[in-house]
Design a protein that fits this description.
Layout lengths: L1 H19 L3 E6 L3 H14 L3 E7 H7 L7 E7 L1 H10 L9 E7 L5 E6 L1 H4 L11 H18 L2
Antiparallel strand pairs: 1-5, 2-3, 3-4, 4-5
Helix pairs in contact: 2-6, 4-6
Protein name: Camphor resistance protein CrcB
Organism: Roseovarius litorisediminis
Keywords: Signal
Length: 151
C-alpha cells in the first residue's frame, strides 16, 4: 500500500511539469471565431499559400445533435516549405500541411492556436532543429496568426 501511495504521489507530482511543457502556441484574437477565421484565410491566401480545408467542428457537432462552442480549423500549406521537410523524412507528411485552430474558450475569448513546427517535427529523424524550413514555417505561422488576430 505504501508503494502504491508513493507511486501515485510521484505520478501526480509530474503533472504540473507535463502541463507546462506545452508545444501549442496561442494568440489572443479581437473578433469572434468566424471573423477571425475569415481573416486567417485571407492572410493565408494573400501570402500565396494554399487553403486545403476549413473544418467547422461546431457545425459538425450540431449535425449530430451535440453542442460545441465555436471552433474551426484551417488546413493550409505551401509546397515550397513543406516538401523539403517531407523529403528529409516522409513521416513529416503526417504533420503537414499546417493547421491553425480558431476557438472560443469558456470565457468567450477567441484564440488562434497552432503547434510549434520545431516541436511538431522534433522527433522525426533526418529533420534538423535548425532546418531553414522550420524557421520559415514558424515565422509564417506567427505572421499569419498575428495578422488574423486583429490585435
Amino acid at each position: 500500500m505504501k508503494n502504491l501511495i508513493a507511486a501515485v504521489a510521484l505520478g501526480l507530482s509530474a503533472l504540473p511539469a507535463l502541463a507546462s511543457n506545452d508545444d501549442i502556441i496561442k494568440v489572443k484574437a479581437a473578433g469572434d471565431v468566424a471573423t477571425t477565421m475569415d481573416a486567417l484565410e485571407a492572410a493565408v491566401t494573400g501570402a500565396g499559400a494554399t487553403v486545403f480545408a476549413r473544418v467547422d467542428h461546431a457545425a459538425g457537432a450540431k449535425k449530430v445533435g451535440m453542442e460545441l462552442a465555436p471552433e474551426q480549423v484551417l488546413i493550409f500549406g505551401n509546397p515550397k516549405l513543406g516538401t523539403p521537410a517531407i523529403q528529409d523524412n516522409p513521416l513529416a507528411g503526417l504533420f503537414l500541411p499546417l493547421k491553425v485552430l480558431v476557438y472560443q474558450d469558456g470565457a468567450g475569448q477567441t484564440w488562434l492556436a497552432y503547434e510549434d513546427p520545431k516541436e511538431m517535427l522534433d522527433d522525426l529523424g533526418g529533420i534538423s532543429d535548425d532546418a531553414e524550413y522550420i524557421k520559415k514555417m514558424t515565422g509564417a505561422l506567427g505572421k499569419l496568426t498575428g495578422k488574423a488576430s486583429g490585435m
